[in-house]
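#onboarding

Welcome to the new folks! Below is a worked example of what a typical request in this channel looks like: someone posts a single protein sequence, and someone else replies with the predicted structure as tokens. Don't worry about understanding the tokens yet, we'll cover that in week two.

Example request:
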Amino acid sequence: MNTPDPAPGTPLLQVDDLHVEFRMRGSTVGAVNGLSYRLEEGETVAILGESGSGKSVSAQAVMGILDTPPARVTKGAVRFRGTELLGLPEKRRRTYRGAKIAMIFQDALSALNPVHRVGDQIAEMLIVHRGMSRRDARKRAIELMDHVRIPSAASRAGDHPHQFSGGMRQRVMIAMALALEPDVLIADEPTTALDVTVQAQIMKLLSDLQEEMAMGLILITHDLGVVADVADRIVVMYAGRAVEEAAVKDLYARPAHPYTEGLLASVPRVDVRDRALSPIKGAPPNLAAIPSGCPFHPRCPRAREERCAGEVPALRDVTGTGHWSACHYAEEVLGG
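Example response:
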């Protein structure tokens, strides 16, 4: 596949004004409503938000694996090194999937085929996409399993998914995603259902592999603690759109959107004693009937009814230094 060299300064991956909707049973659900972000070479971007905020759907749109119907990308662009992916014929789109942009799914047991050995599942990708012989592909599969630190990789390659622990299955998924040496790796809730010790191991592994292979890494999660030590930037999503984006240290120190403040306030901290957790009141919005104005205003402690209910706040660089917020009063917060 021959593609022109990208212009200088072109991001590795750029998502621009992405809209995805689901049409079913006579209603339309706006799952993603104007999401934009960019990923640079060797950068780690975390996408945070509650369940239903559109994180995973946006990743599936980037990968081109949405079930259509009922899902439809109605607007926007997804560019890999400047090449628009959304309008490509499916045959050409497949040449990017896995080889250029790969994804780790959150439920490894469901993503892996239960009746095939894990080594064969990894090898199959190399046979199909790289034309390798079955013998060479199996040898490479064992090397990949060893690379993601699965003990006794040669013997474990003959095991089935149910014979692995949750953490080891996640390592198998990472090995599969790395098989074709992608430039972008999307990890969708990679530590879901794992205990905290294994979570730390998986995040350390992803961070090490990202640095070693110079990949761009997108981490999708609802857990702020999981990405605190590995992300360069954080994009916070609410009701299908980005409401805040900043460098990780800046966002944790000075959140500019009340939703981000609420997420941080609801997380236990070991460095602060005698502080009660403060959950966000209310419930996430119905995506088939998103509130007018700022979608967070019904739950917002500092909402001013007339403006917040009637005017959608634009996502803008509040500080001029890359701290973006979609709150009418972000300047007041950061200025204070």
